[in-house]
Each structure stands twice: as structure tokens, then as C-alpha cells.
């Protein structure tokens, strides 16, 4: 896509806000102490929070969802920053050609922008998070260095739409009725119209945009970088124009954001492939030749992992979730899997061993399985499968082939209308992928002993089975296959060897192999004892077992920045032999064993 002009701009609903004097770009005035607070910033009126209150709470939520901010965890001491950085934010909706729905873009321009360096760090939210979903990853490194930070929610995000009230989320995060203001997400046929007593529920953009946004993640990142140039022209008119030829652009992201920046690294064939200067991707969800798609291994894990985790060979599992929480349905799951011919064994113990063996055979390491206990215990595999089945199949709300939907739920897990206060907080509190923030998964088929098994079985058959629905989902997955990065582009990929959500064997390892087979010089850091969720390191057992991944992402940014600035060599491949800190110990540089 060419750089935007006034006549062809893909941007709309543009806003500019200033953040100084008790507010700032990096922490919304909360500072490290406020980010560490267990309770979120309050709304003066819970049913009608202001845009400023929503922004502050969204920043609090996204910091805590990504980084380990606990005392002794190292953030702000060994790596990263929560400095007070005043400046302006420029935000807009952007739309790629052919898309039904926009994605959000936002640029933070610090007052201390380094006009001599002219640096933009472009990033994409991890998971399905909202527009601030990569603030700890990109802004914690770049803002204190005088770089502008450009964000995209990559067509996902927390712009939920209430199908019962006909209300969605406007540009400033506040709730508005469809048609009354430009909304970040308004699904087809948004008006109310349910029958008496019927609840239609809630639509989420990642699941229900019908755009399969993952297929366009690279273009979303490119548009965020284009918007950064526009914002810098507005913020620093005496130093413009800002162009890709005179402005350094480094892309960084983790998880889904890591996958997005790797997709942005591909040559786009437009004749302007030199727009990006370097890429750092941490624990990327990337579907490359020789790997496995997230939908494939997530639906496999959703079925088999609860049973496999009962195998004593995997003990002790990290806590929480408690072994009893996993075991509450896992014993029943083993038996049901045996009935379906998915595992062998005469009793649950033998069935657990067989489920463990089958997961090993399909590429799961024991380290990934142990860390994956968190995803099994917190029901994340099901959440992923429900959302991605809708996204890949391009299903509208109410069309899920397994009869699954999103809604506010009562105590009996029956859909009910959302309240004004719940609706008002979704944008700030949600992760973009229910359940969470008062939005649950409603199921039409529930089993008595293992309640979610019918839905999970249906979700798995969308990958392994036949029929139109399975074909639609697999077609959507085929649209996300990654290609090699542009020749000559510095790329560093970092992944934890214990990642239990996006196992290295299914994602970054085959991506690096594919890129190198195409003649690309991609550097690869593999980090021992790093799992997927740095935020979990605030839990004592996780802190004792695992090291954070974010320090290595920031270190890789330092290395590519030095390479671009002075020609310093890029780092070599490394298997980084970290040392877990153990119980009750603060993280030190010696634990991290940062490569030199």
C-alpha cells in the first residue's frame, strides 16, 4: 500500500490528546507504584467513565497483562522503564483495502522526540489486546530513548459490540450507539431485534469482523508506521516531512504481535520494500512452512492436555492452577477420550500416559506441556479455539458452526443482557478474547460430567473433519501462511524453550528454517526456562521456575539499534542458559545470562 495522501488516506476519526502534568505517555500518570496496584484505577461514574479514565485504566490493564512488575522481578531495574514521559497521542481508525472493519492505530510522540535520530518503533498488540497491548514491549524501551511509538490493534482489540443494546465503542473508548458516532467495530445487522426474552449477546472484532484480520497483520503494521509519519509531520512541522527514507523504523512485537511484525517484514512487491529497517519478534505466533497453525495445536491441546497433565512424569506442575483444579474434570476427560478412540488405556492413569505420549509425538516437549498447564487450567485453549474458528471461517455473530457465542452470563451460565457499567468497562478491561471482563462463552451443548467437551470436540473437527465449516476454517488458516522477510532486513527472533502457549517447535523454529532456506540472515535466540507469560511471574511458583522473556526483547532492540546507528554487528544465534532464581529470590543479571 502506498504512503497515504490527503486524497487517498485510509485514516478516519483522527484525534490528538496531550499528556502532561500528572499524566504521561508511558504510565498515564500512575508510575510504577500505580501500575503495581492490585485494584484498577476507578471510574467516578462506573456507567459513564470519561475518555481519560478509560485510557488510564486501559494502560494499567495492559501493563499488568504483559510485564512482570512485581518487586524483585527486574522491571525498571534490569530492563525496561516506567519513566514519566510527557507528550501527545495521535489516534485514528485505519482500514486496509477490502476490509469490512477498521483497525485502530495510535502514535505516541514524546516531547523529547530525538529529531537527530528520527526513530519510530512500530508495534502490534499481543494476543487480541486493544491498542495499548504492546505498551510494555515497545514504549518501555523506545519512549525514554526519544522515539515515537506507533501501535496497531491489528484488527482485533477490545471494541466489543453489544448486540442487545446496539452499542459499540467510539474512537475515544466511550460507548456509543450504532450510527451516532464512528465506531471501531459495528458488525453487520447490529440493530436489536431478538425475540421476547432472547439475548443476542456480544460481538468481538477479532472473532466477528468477517475479515480474517490475521491475514492482513503485516499490512496493519505498515499502516501504523504510515500513520506515525503523518503524526510526526503534525507534531514536528519544522522538521518534516517525515518519510520512510529519512526516518528509522524498527518493528517489535511479542506473541501475536511478534507474528504481525514478521508478516510486515515480508517484501510487499510495491517497489517500496525498504520502509522497515529492523525487526525484533518475541515468542511469535507465526505459521510457516514446516510448522503447525495455532488452531491445530490449540484444539489438540484443549482436548488432550487436561488428561496428559495427570501423568506423574510431568509433575510437579507450576501453580496455580492447582492440580486439583485441573483434575476436577481431567479424570472424566481421560475416560471420554478413550471412549472416542483418541487415547488408549484401561484406566485414567494409563490414559493420561497415552495422552502425554501422543502430545510428545505431535511435537510437544515436556517443558511446553508443564508450562501449558496454565492455559489448560485457565481455560485459554477453549477461548482461543472459539475466537479463531469464527475469525478463520469469517463467521458473523450468531453463525458459529459449533453453536458458541459471547455474552454476559448469569450464575447458571445462561446469557443475560449486559449492564451499563459492564459495557462501559469492556474497552479498558478486556483482553479481546473472552472469557473475561464480564463477557463469557455461551454454549448450546453442555455435558454433565465434562461440560465443555462437546464444544471442544466440534472445534477440533473443524480442523480434522470434512464439510463446509471445516473447509472455511482451513481456508482461513491457509490465508495466514508466512513468507520470508525482505532480503537484507535485520531480523532477530527470540523464543522461550518452555513456551507452553506458542511452542517454539511449531512457530519460530520452522519460521527461522524457512527464512534461512530462502537465503535470509535471521538471528535466533532460544531462552532456557522462559515460558509465554511474563505477567505470570508475579506468582511465586512461576517466579521460582521461570525467567522473563521481555529483557531479551529489549536487549535485541538495543543490538539492532546499535547496528543501525553505528554498524555494530548483529548478535549471533544463542541458546541462552539461564538460571531460575528459586523461591523468594530477586531476579539478577546473573540469572538472565544475557548474551554478549
Please characterize this protein's 3D structure.
- By secondary structure, the chain is α/β, with parallel strands linked by helices.
- The chain contains 18 helices and 17 strands.
- It has helices at 31-36, 51-66, 135-142, 205-208, 217-235, 256-264, 294-308, 323-339, 348-361, 366-377, 380-393, 420-429, 453-464, 468-478, 508-517, 540-545, 550-566, 589-592; strands at 11-19, 87-94, 103-110, 119-124, 148-152, 161-162, 167-169, 175-177, 202-203, 248-254, 278-282, 404-409, 415-416, 440-443, 491-496, 522-527, 574-576.
- A 10-stranded mixed β-sheet has the order 1-2-3-5-4-10-11-15-16-17, sandwiched between helices.
- Strand 15 (491-496), helix 15 and strand 16 (522-527) form a beta-alpha-beta unit.
- The chain is globular and about 75 Å long.
- It starts with 10 loop residues before the first strand and ends with a helix.
- The model is unreliable at 1-7 (pLDDT under 50).
Q: Could you give a short account of the major beta sheet?
A: 10 strands, mixed
Shape: globular
Number of DSSP helical runs: 18
Strand tally is 17
Helical residues, percent: 25-40%
Range of strand content:
5-15%
Task: Kindly report the spatial arrangement of strands forming the biggest sheet.
Answer: 1-2-3-5-4-10-11-15-16-17
* Computed structural class: alpha/beta
Low-confidence stretches: 1-7
C-alpha Rg (nearest Å):
23 Å
> What distance separates the N and C termini?
38 Å
Instruction: State the assembly state of the protein chains.
Output: single chain
For the residues shown, what is the average pLDDT? 94
